[in-house]
């Protein structure tokens, strides 16, 4: 039975209560998930923070420790959860996840099948996309991972939207009671071609499948299997994300650096190796007018995997 109770939805509440999960943000590369408990404290290098001071405050607020240090308390959105969850496996990140949610055409009420569950990074975003009336059935053959994922979905308030099954999807396929009920299927498996015939049986007419694979040889084999299993519109993408660092700097300083680096004024204002020392120079140098400068981040992620999409043919 699919859960159809519209009350079983993701929480979009604005204020922190006892028992809530919050993301404690120290800086962009230092965040952690904390369950609020009235009698507990959080201790870090900024001091001791009493949870009781957090209750009733809005998500996004800045809170202070006994010695004046501060952190931000953020809502546990799927985007932040992906950054703080415990990595039991390789996971999908925001760039691939966003693309998957869009190309699988997910809307509230959809039924999605997924395997493997892994660390539940993608599952969390699938659940939000199909909430409040849809459902994600996710399967992993590794029992401990399935148990840990269920615990995480409890913590993040998604357990009414997600069912986690322990099953060898490459060996046995998806359960027969799901035949013809899926709007979308997502595979993150080492040999996805073994699960494709079953995925085809699970999909509604016109349903969409996506398979994530790190290697192009896996993509080739999956694509052949898709073509011979009534799938059409087979397309593969690689999503590469480029983030930018934005800082304030003095124009005259930037121009000098630009010319020494590339000979192209305005193109790339900062030399790579000088980054750290420059950052402090910007603070110290009071001459010239400050400007906002942007450049691609040195931490940008490279290849993660290929996303192969295909649509089950209509029987006209
Ligand atoms: C890379 S992880 C998936 C990560 C997940 N997409 C995420 O974002 O967190 C791959 C998972 O597939 C599971 N797996 C591998 N072979 C499987 C099979 N035959 N049936 C079910 N699960 C399988 C593994 O146990 C592992 O947890």
UniProtKB/TrEMBL annotation:
Class of enzymatic activity (EC top level): transferase
Listed Pfam families: GCD14
Subcellular location per the Swiss-Prot or TrEMBL entry: Nucleus
Gene Ontology cellular component list: nucleus; tRNA (m1A) methyltransferase complex
MF annotations from Gene Ontology: tRNA (adenine(58)-N1)-methyltransferase activity
Listed Low complexity bias regions: 253-264
Signal sequence, start to end: none
Keyword set, alphabetical order: Methyltransferase, Nucleus, S-adenosyl-L-methionine, Transferase, tRNA processing
A GO BP entry: tRNA methylation
Alphabetized InterPro entries for the sequence: SAM-dependent_MTases_sf, TRM61_C, tRNA_MeTrfase_Gcd14
Catalysed reactions, as listed in the record: adenosine(58) in tRNA + S-adenosyl-L-methionine = N(1)-methyladenosine(58) in tRNA + S-adenosyl-L-homocysteine + H(+)
UniProt family annotation: Belongs to the class I-like SAM-binding methyltransferase superfamily. TRM61 family.
Protein name: tRNA (adenine(58)-N(1))-methyltransferase
Species this protein is from: Lactuca sativa
């Amino acid at each position: 039975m699919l859960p159809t109770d519209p009350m079983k939805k993701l929480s979009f509440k604005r204020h922190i209560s006892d028992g809530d999960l919050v993301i404690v943000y120290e800086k962009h590369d230092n965040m952690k998930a904390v369950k609020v408990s009235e009698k507990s404290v959080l201790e870090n290098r900024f001091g001791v923070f009493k949870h009781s001071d957090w209750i009733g405050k809005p998500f996004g607020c800045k809170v202070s420790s006994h010695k004046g240090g501060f952190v931000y308390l953020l809502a546990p959105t799927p985007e932040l959860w992906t950054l703080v969850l415990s990595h039991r496996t390789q996971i999908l990140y925001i760039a691939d996840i966003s693309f998957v949610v869009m190309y699988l055409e997910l809307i509230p009420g959809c039924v999605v099948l997924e395997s493997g569950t892994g660390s539940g990074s993608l599952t969390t975003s699938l659940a939000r996309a199909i909430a409040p009336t849809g459902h994600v059935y996710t399967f992993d053959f590794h029992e401990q991972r399935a148990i840990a994922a269920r615990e995480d979905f409890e913590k993040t308030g998604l357990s009414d939207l997600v069912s986690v099954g322990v099953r060898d999807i490459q060996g046995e396929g998806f359960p027969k009671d799901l035949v013809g009920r899926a709007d979308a299927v997502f595979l993150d498996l080492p040999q996805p071609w073994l699960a494709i015939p079953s995925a085809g049986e699970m999909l509604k007419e016109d349903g969409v499948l996506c398979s994530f694979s790190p290697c192009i040889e896996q993509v080739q084999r999956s694509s052949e299997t898709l073509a011979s299993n009534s799938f059409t519109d087979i397309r593969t993408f690689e999503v590469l994300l480029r983030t930018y660092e934005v800082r304030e700097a003095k124009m005259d300083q930037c121009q000098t650096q630009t010319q020494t680096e590339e000979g192209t004024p305005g193109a790339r204002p900062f030399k790579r190796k000088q980054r750290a020392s420059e950052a402090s120079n910007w603070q110290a140098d009071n001459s010239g007018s400050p400007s906002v400068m942007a450049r691609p981040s040195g931490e940008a992620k490279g290849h993660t995997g290929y996303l192969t999409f295909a649509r089950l043919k209509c029987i006209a």
